[in-house]
Amino acid sequence: MKGSEFVIECDTVVVAIGTMANPVLQATTPGLTVNKWGYIVINEETGETSRKGVYAGGDIVTGSATVILAMGAGRKAANTIHQYVMSL
Ligand SMILES: Cc1cc2nc3c(=O)[nH]c(=O)nc-3n(C[C@H](O)[C@H](O)[C@H](O)COP(=O)(O)OP(=O)(O)OC[C@H]3O[C@@H](n4cnc5c(N)ncnc54)[C@H](O)[C@@H]3O)c2cc1C
Fold this sequence. Notes:
By secondary structure, the chain is mainly α. It has helices at 23-28, 59-62, 67-86.
């Protein structure tokens, strides 16, 4: 927005962005297989996790990646979730 820029005088800038798996996930979700970095392990074809009826995709599976990859994973998982729900 025009005129919204401003300058802050400083010596150091620390960029603080969260780009890692939250360890709470592993601690609070028994039966959910994660890899050594804490990201969820899935069936790449379907998005299924080790817990029945639980699907995952995006950064929590791949680690920091891109929006387009996350969207693709969501699309894939949605298809599998649909098939799963219809089979109940
Ligand atoms: C600074 C920065 C810049 C980036 N720039 C680009 C770019 O230019 N182009 C690009 O393609 N990608 C970019 N990325 C990467 C992109 O943002 C991610 O790959 C993408 O957002 C991953 O989507 P996701 O749905 O997997 O995860 P997220 O977008 O992180 O969504 C996860 C959601 O889950 C929510 N959540 C977390 N814990 C819980 C909980 N316990 N209960 C309920 N909800 C929860 C979070 O609040 C969040 O809304 C950038 C990332 C960062 C950090």
